[in-house]
């Protein structure tokens, strides 16, 4: 995306002080009557702090955006670039048929797709939850996934005990909705 503009909001205290100053600028009896500020002075007095602007610009850069300009008044940041990767999963949950303890069920597949326009960096694919030891995960996912590409996550159910078992398949990455989770359920007998 080209030329996006982020408006930084003043604190309530700064907003009140600005309104008071503007009223004094319009009052012929005030020493501030028609006393105009340079943009840099305006930013220093009524804009976000330099530390806040630096935090926002650093965050934008960490999201692979390019900061093109910060206004003299420090209230607008102009930036460009591509949005963060967007992960889609072929399933939100997997349910396994009743399976004998110590026997591997039929394997099910979850397809992970980078539907965004920038590289997806995978930092973890894990099984968690009280029944996690009864599920098995293997995948074809590399540490990075280019835009519009996919990888497969294979999940099997190998119950270590009898009864209803649940777990979660967790995927952590640099996508905007990380972590993604797939609910896993199965019954051991």
Briefly characterize the structure.
The chain is of the alpha+beta class and 189 residues long. Helix content is 19%, strand content 39%.
- What does the main sheet amount to? 5 strands, mixed
The tally of helices reads: 3
The portion of residues forming beta strands comes to 35-45%
Poorly predicted tracts of residues:
none
CATH topology of the largest domain: Immunoglobulin-like
- Level of helix content? 10-25%
How far is the N terminus from the C terminus? 54 Å
For the secondary structure, the number of strands is 12
CATH class of the largest domain: Mainly Beta
Radius of gyration: 27 Å
Residue-averaged pLDDT:
91
The strand line-up of the biggest sheet is 5-12-11-7-9
Global structural class: alpha+beta
CATH architecture of the largest domain: Sandwich
Mass-distribution shape: elongated
Indicate how many domains the architecture comprises: 2
Instruction: Spell out the CATH superfamily of the largest domain.
Output: Immunoglobulins
Oligomer description: single chain
Helix and strand run: EHHHEEEEEEEEEEE
Task: Write up this protein.
The structure is a single chain. With 189 residues, the protein is of the alpha+beta class. It folds into 2 domains: 4-81, no CATH class; 87-188, Immunoglobulins (Immunoglobulin-like), CATH 2.60.40. The chain is 19% helix and 39% strand. It contains 3 helices and 12 strands. It has a 5-stranded mixed sheet, with no helix packed on it. A hairpin with a 6-residue loop joins strand 11 (163-173) and strand 12 (180-188). It is elongated and about 90 Å long. The model has no long low-confidence stretch (mean pLDDT 91).
């Amino acid at each position: 995306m080209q030329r996006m503009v982020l408006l930084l909001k003043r604190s309530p205290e700064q907003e009140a002080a600005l309104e008071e100053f503007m009223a004094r600028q319009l009052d012929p009896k005030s020493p501030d009557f028609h006393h105009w500020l340079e943009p840099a002075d305006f930013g220093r007095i009524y804009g976000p702090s330099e530390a806040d602007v630096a935090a926002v610009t650093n965050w934008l850069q960490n999201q692979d955006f390019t900061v093109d300009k910060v206004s003299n008044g420090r209230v607008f940041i102009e930036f460009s670039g591509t949005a963060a990767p967007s992960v889609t999963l072929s399933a939100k949950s997997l349910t396994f048929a009743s399976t004998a303890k110590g026997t591997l069920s039929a394997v099910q597949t979850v397809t992970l797709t980078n539907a965004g326009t920038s590289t997806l960096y995978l930092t973890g694919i894990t099984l968690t939850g009280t029944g996690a030891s009864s599920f098995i995960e293997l995948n074809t996912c590399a540490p990075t996934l280019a835009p519009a590409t996919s990888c497969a996550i294979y999940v099997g159910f190998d119950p270590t005990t009898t009864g209803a078992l649940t777990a979660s398949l967790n995927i952590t990455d640099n996508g905007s909705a990380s972590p993604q989770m797939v609910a896993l359920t199965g019954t051991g007998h």
